[in-house]
C-alpha cells in the first residue's frame, strides 16, 4: 500500500473539494418525432424515463462505493426545435413541461436541450422555440435552454442576436433568477455535460454518458507549494494536478457507462467553481500572483491556467470534449464575487478573459434598466470573440429587474449570488437593428 | 472486492482493537495494515477484502457509526479509484 498516495487522494476529496461535477446522459430524441405534438411528447417522456431510469441510482452507488462526490445527475436531449418542428403546435411550452416532468420523476437535477441552432438562419421550429423560451423557462424548474447564434463556419446571425436580447429581458421581467437557465452560444458544442448549455448534438449516438470534472481547490492547493517559483513550474504543477483529477473523471465515467450499459462519450476537462470556500478559479489566479482577479495580468494568468488544464487532462482520458477549460462564472465563485464587490473586476475585463478560457460572460447580473439592444450588443461581442478565435463563447447574463449597480441577486445553493455590475450605457441599437448575418471570418475557409 | 479503509482521528487506547473487531463481525478480511501518528493524529490504513455476500453499504454504515461513537473519521472506498488516480 502506498500510504502517501492514499492520503493524497483522500485529502483531494475531503479538504480540496474534488468532485465529479456532473454525470450527464445524452439522449437522442429523433425517434420521438411525430406530426402530433401530444404523441411526440408521450414518446419523449417514455424514452427519457426508460433510458435514464437507473442514472441517479448508479451515480449514488458510485459515490458511495468509491467515495467520490457526484454533485449533479443530468440529462441532455436533442435540440427540441428539431424534434418539435414536425408537429403543428404553435408553441413548444408543453415540450418543456414534458422534459420537466421526466426530470422530476427520474430525480435528475437538470435537463438541457430546450435549444435551437440558428447560427445561419431559422427553420420553422427554431423561431417557435425561441418565442416559447420565456414561458417555458418560467413554468418549469429543471429545464435549461440554449440558442446558438454564431459559428466560425457560418458567421453570426444578427437577427437572432437581436431576438435573444429581447427574450432575456422578457424572461427577467417575471423573475431574473430564470435567466440562469438560458445560455446564448457561439460555436456551441454537441457533447457539453454542463448546464445550462448542454444539449445532445445531432451527430451523437443514441445515448451516451458524458462526465464533467471539477477541482479548482486541488489546483490551488498544489500551487501553494510552488510559491515564488518560475511560471514554467506553475504550468507543470497545474498539468500534473489536472492529470490526476481527469483520471478520476475517466474512471467514474467508465464505471457509470458499464453499469448503465451506455457508451462513454467524453470527459469535459473544466475547472468549475462553486461558491464554497476553497473551490474558486479566481483564487487560483491570485495564487499565481495577482493581488486580485481583475488586475493587469489576469488574462495572461488565465490563459496559462486554461492551457495547462487541457494539456494535463488530455492524456488522462480517452476522449476529451465538451467545453474543457476554466469557467469564470461570477456568482458561482466566492472570490469573483469579492473582486466585483470590491471594485477590482469589471465586465470589460471579464470579456477579455473569455477570449482565453471557456466559456463566456457567465452568471453576471446587470442593472434592470439595461436595454434589450445593449444585451444584444454584449451577445454580439461575445459571439465575435468565439467566431474569430474558433472557440466556444456564451452569454448567460441576468438583468436584475428593479435593481441597480451595487445591489445583489440571490440564486441559492451552488449558483450563489451575483452583485449587479455596471454596463456601458452607450446604445448599440442602430447596429443591432440592421439585422442580417455577419459573414464567416476568412480563416474559416480551410477546405 | 478490495477496498481501502482509512481511520483518522485523535489517538486513544483501543482504536485498532475496536475497528478490527467490527471488521471481523462484518466478515471483512484485513490483508494489509499500516498505522502511524501524523501531527498527533492517529492515521491507520487497511487494505481489506469483502466477499460477494457482504453488502458494501452495510459495512459503510456500520463503520460510520463506529466512527461517530469513537470520534474517528472512518472511510471505506473501493480500491480501484486510488489506482485510477495515482497510477498510469
Automatic annotation (TrEMBL), chain A:
InterPro entries: UPF0210. Homodimer. Belongs to the UPF0210 family. This is UPF0210 protein FC88_GL000777.
UniProtKB/TrEMBL annotation, chain B:
Belongs to the UPF0237 family. InterPro entries: ACT-like_dom_sf, ACT_dom, UPF0237/GcvR_regulator, UPF0237_ACT. It holds the Pfam family ACT_6. NCBIfam families: PRK00194.1. Residues 4-77 form the ACT domain. This is UPF0237 protein FC88_GL000778.
Amino acid at each position: 500500500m502506498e500510504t502517501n498516495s492514499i492520503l493524497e487522494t483522500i485529502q483531494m476529496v475531503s479538504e480540496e473539494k474534488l468532485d465529479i461535477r456532473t454525470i450527464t446522459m445524452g439522449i437522442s430524441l429523433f425517434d420521438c418525432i411525430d406530426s402530433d405534438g401530444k404523441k411526440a411528447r408521450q414518446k419523449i417522456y417514455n424514452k427519457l424515463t426508460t433510458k435514464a431510469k437507473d442514472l441517479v441510482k448508479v451515480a449514488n452507488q458510485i459515490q458511495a462505493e468509491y467515495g467520490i462526490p457526484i454533485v449533479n445527475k443530468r440529462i441532455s436531449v436533442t435540440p427540441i426545435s428539431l424534434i418539435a418542428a414536425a408537429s403543428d403546435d404553435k408553441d413548444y411550452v408543453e415540450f418543456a413541461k414534458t422534459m420537466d416532468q421526466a426530470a422530476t420523476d427520474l430525480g435528475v437535477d437538470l435537463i438541457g436541450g430546450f435549444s435551437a441552432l440558428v447560427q445561419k438562419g431559422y427553420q420553422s421550429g427554431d423561431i417557435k422555440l425561441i418565442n416559447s423560451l420565456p414561458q417555458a423557462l418560467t413554468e418549469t424548474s429543471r429545464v435549461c435552454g440554449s440558442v446558438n447564434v454564431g459559428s466560425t463556419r457560418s458567421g453570426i446571425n444578427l437577427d437572432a442576436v437581436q431576438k435573444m436580447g429581447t427574450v432575456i429581458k422578457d424572461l427577467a421581467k417575471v423573475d431574473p433568477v430564470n435567466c440562469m437557465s438560458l445560455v446564448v452560444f457561439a460555436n456551441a458544442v454537441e457533447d457539453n455535460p454542463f448546464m445550462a448549455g448542454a444539449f445532445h448534438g445531432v451527430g451523437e449516438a443514441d445515448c451516451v454518458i458524458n462526465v464533467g470534472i471539477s477541482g479548482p481547490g486541488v489546483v490551488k492547493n498544489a500551487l501553494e507549494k510552488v510559491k515564488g517559483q518560475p511560471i514554467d513550474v506553475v504550468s507543470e504543477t497545474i498539468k500534473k494536478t489536472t492529470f490526476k483529477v481527469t483520471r478520476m473523471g475517466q474512471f467514474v465515467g467508465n464505471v457509470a457507462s458499464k453499469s448503465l450499459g451506455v457508451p462513454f462519450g467524453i470527459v469535459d476537462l473544466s475547472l468549475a467553481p462553486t461558491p464554497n470556500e476553497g473551490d474558486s478559479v479566481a483564487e487560483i489566479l491570485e495564487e499565481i500572483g495577482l493581488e486580485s482577479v481583475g488586475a493587469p495580468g489576469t488574462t495572461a494568468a488565465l490563459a496559462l491556467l486554461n492551457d495547462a488544464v487541457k494539456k494535463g487532462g488530455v492524456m488522462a482520458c480517452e476522449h476529451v470534449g465538451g467545453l474543457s477549460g476554466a469557467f469564470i462564472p461570477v456568482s458561482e465563485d466566492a472570490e469573483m464575487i469579492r473582486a466585483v464587490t470590491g471594485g477590482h473586476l469589471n465586465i470589460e475585463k471579464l470579456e477579455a478573459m473569455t477570449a482565453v478560457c471557456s466559456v463566456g460572460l457567465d452568471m453576471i447580473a446587470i442593472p434592470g434598466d439595461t436595454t434589450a439592444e445593449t444585451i444584444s450588443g454584449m451577445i454580439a461581442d461575445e459571439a465575435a470573440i468565439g467566431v474569430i478565435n474558433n472557440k466556444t463563447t456564451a452569454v448567460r447574463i441576468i438583468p436584475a429587474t428593479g435593481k441597480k449597480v451595487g445591489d445583489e441577486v440571490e440564486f441559492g445553493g451552488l449558483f450563489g449570488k451575483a452583485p449587479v455590475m455596471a454596463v456601458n450605457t452607450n446604445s448599440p441599437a442602430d447596429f443591432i437593428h440592421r439585422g442580417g448575418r455577419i459573414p464567416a471570418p476568412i480563416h474559416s475557409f480551410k477546405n | 472486492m478490495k477496498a481501502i479503509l482509512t481511520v483518522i482521528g485523535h489517538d486513544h487506547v483501543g482504536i485498532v482493537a475496536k475497528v478490527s473487531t467490527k471488521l471481523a463481525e462484518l466478515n471483512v478480511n484485513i490483508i494489509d495494515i499500516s498505522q502511524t501518528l501524523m501531527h498527533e493524529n492517529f492515521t491507520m490504513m487497511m487494505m481489506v477484502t469483502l466477499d460477494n455476500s457482504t453488502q458494501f453499504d452495510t459495512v459503510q454504515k456500520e463503520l460510520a457509526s463506529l466512527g461517530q461513537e469513537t470520534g474517528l473519521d472512518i472511510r471505506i472506498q473501493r480500491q480501484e479509484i486510488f489506482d485510477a488516480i495515482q497510477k498510469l
